[in-house]
Amino acid sequence: MSIDSLPPLRDVMERHQLMAKKSLGQNFLFDLNLTAKIARQAGDLKDQPVIEVGPGPGGLTRALLAQGALVTAIERDERCLPALDEIASHYPGRLTIISGDALEQDFSALAGNGSKPRIIANLPYNVGTQLLVNWLLSEPWPPFYASMTLMFQREVAERIVARPGSEAYGRLGVLAGWRSEAKIAFDVPPQAFTPPPKITSSVVHIVPRAEPLACDAASLGRVTQAAFGQRRKMLRQSIKSLGGEALLEKVGIDPTRRAETLDIEEFVALANAI
Ligand code: SAM
């Protein structure tokens, strides 16, 4: 069954001789039921703006467009542009393609004056975490986007939703927990991708909090980096360069505790005290 009358993705790949490149984190999705499921996870997309990073040959892009979205897609691999142009012609005025590196893109400039865009992407693994951190640290807050629905390696997804006390809890969990509500929506097995990666992936749905605890993002970044950089050590040692024992006592945190035992409120208190 087809969601549009465009040719099957495998044919598109063959016609444009698109061999996946590992250096660009290319693991493509050809299953249109799965791409539709990812798109649905982001909610009702009818006439809603969507930003997609790394459309590749356009599997997820086609699902977004079929559900009525207005898509702006940023792709670094120029080999994919002819295939994306074909999709754009099929959906006149609904797909804008930007050729370039998402890490250098000013995403807030892509948001128009109407509804805030949703960010939806099967992210390239090599830059996915960096992009997420950039979006979580967006200023001003509330951010330029309404939500993010993103594919990550399962291990990264677990770090995003991690709670204090767990192995996976670290800088990513504190930043995500501070500014958003994040949940793992569903897992995607390796064989769903071409070529299959070695590990399971997960789709994470992230909704920004309207009013996160007041905190300077850069200070929170510094505290979490120091604390989790030496996560086995007591905090008085790991955050010594930021004020160590005196700082911890100032905010009423036992200096012999370790980073993974601190909840988000405590990290915010520390960040506000440095
Ligand atoms: N969305 C497609 C799909 O689901 O089949 C492709 C996903 S693939 C995991 C990641 C895509 O991101 C590739 O098309 C790759 O070329 C692109 N990409 C890699 N690094 C990028 C970057 N820095 N900026 C924009 N796109 C990038």
Automatic annotation (TrEMBL):
Catalytic activity: adenosine(1518)/adenosine(1519) in 16S rRNA + 4 S-adenosyl-L-methionine = N(6)-dimethyladenosine(1518)/N(6)-dimethyladenosine(1519) in 16S rRNA + 4 S-adenosyl-L-homocysteine + 4 H(+)
Annotated binding of S-adenosyl-L-methionine, by residue: N27, L29, G54, E75, D101, N122
Native organism: Phyllobacterium salinisoli
Main location class: cytoplasm
Function: Specifically dimethylates two adjacent adenosines (A1518 and A1519) in the loop of a conserved hairpin near the 3'-end of 16S rRNA in the 30S particle. May play a critical role in biogenesis of 30S subunits.
The Ribosomal RNA adenine methylase transferase N-terminal domain, residue ranges: 34-210
Top-level EC class: transferase
GO cellular component: cytosol
EC number: 2.1.1.182
Annotated family: Belongs to the class I-like SAM-binding methyltransferase superfamily. rRNA adenine N(6)-methyltransferase family. RsmA subfamily.
High-level lineage: Bacteria, Pseudomonadati, Pseudomonadota, Alphaproteobacteria, Hyphomicrobiales
Matches recorded under Pfam families: RrnaAD
Gene symbol of the encoding locus: rsmA
UniProt-listed InterPro entries: KsgA/Erm (IPR001737), rRNA_Ade_diMease-like_C (IPR023165), rRNA_Ade_Mease_Trfase_CS (IPR020596), rRNA_Ade_methylase_Trfase_N (IPR020598), rRNA_adenine_dimethylase (IPR011530), SAM-dependent_MTases_sf (IPR029063)
PANTHER family: DIMETHYLADENOSINE TRANSFERASE (PTHR11727), DIMETHYLADENOSINE TRANSFERASE-RELATED (PTHR11727:SF7)
This protein's UniProt keywords: Cytoplasm, Methyltransferase, RNA-binding, rRNA processing, S-adenosyl-L-methionine, Transferase
Any one GO molecular function term: RNA binding
Signal sequence, start to end: none
Top-level taxon in the UniProt lineage: Bacteria
Protein name in UniProt: Ribosomal RNA small subunit methyltransferase A
Localization per record: Cytoplasm
